[in-house]
Amino acid sequence: QLQVVESGGGLVQPGGSLRLSCAASGFTLDYYAIGWFRQAPGKEREGVSCISSSGRSANYGDSVKGRFTISRDNAKNTVYLQMNSLKPEDTAVYYCAARIMSCSSRPGLYDYWGQGTQVTVSS
Q1: Reported confidence tier of residue 119, pLDDT bands at 50, 70, 90
Q2: What is the largest distance, in Å, between two alpha-carbon atoms of the chain?
């Protein structure tokens, strides 16, 4: 079965850090761009970051620029999202998704989605 699986979420205090992982199962990520999206209760799904299949291109949503960093380790078939200086407004379920080659801001263009991992930023 082809799928991506997120891990690394949890409860963290404001100003803290978390690293999310997105691991592929049943296929290799080498040719796939990976996007991270998040959805808070009552809000639409929001694009957080994306990294191209080569890893040479990455982009970030305005709300996370300078705080989040996306990276990939194709040898481990995993993409990471390092989240620093977390704020309460970062609280959401975070999803990773895969699509061939290049990033897109449109969730509907991604082929594989994980089940999500909860990130809660609270004191």
Answers
A1: very high
A2: 40
